[in-house]
Design goal:
This protein is mainly beta. The chain has one domain: Immunoglobulin-like, CATH 2.60.40. It is built from one helix and ten strands; from the N terminus they run H-E-E-E-E-E-E-E-E-E-E.
Length: 164
Amino acid sequence: MKGVHVLIAIVGGSVLLLVLGIFLTMDRSKPQVLSANAEAKVVTPTTNYDWGEIRMDNGKVEARFPIKNEGTQPLVLSEAQTSCMCTTATLSFQGKTSPPFGMHAKSAYTLQVPPGQEAELSVIFDPAFHGPNGVGQIDRQVTMATNDPLKPELTFFLKALVTR
């Protein structure tokens, strides 16, 4: 009977340590709240991309979107998020790239784009992510907040026809 109590204590302690470890390694940073700035002006030539027909076994595909600040004050981009775990995205500016962001939480990463400068959104879609049943038409979105009061949120729309 004493051995059972020891085993229960060991298992219980291990579970407690595991839960504590997960809690301590979670990213609990809160996204920045953006203040609108009438002098920031976001311009995106397009917010739509169609990969057309893509084979599941040909690997990941990428789409790129320029995001320009045509205002006189810095453009702030933050709270980026994708609509599905099969899709990740990054923001790049002057040779530096953000950490990848995905579906489950709005990214705490913030990028400031100076007046007249351009950043780039890169979106990666993995057609094999959902396995053999993940064929057919897909529609994905990437959203992010801006400090442009006329466009407080950007949404990029991506689609494809996934085949085997």
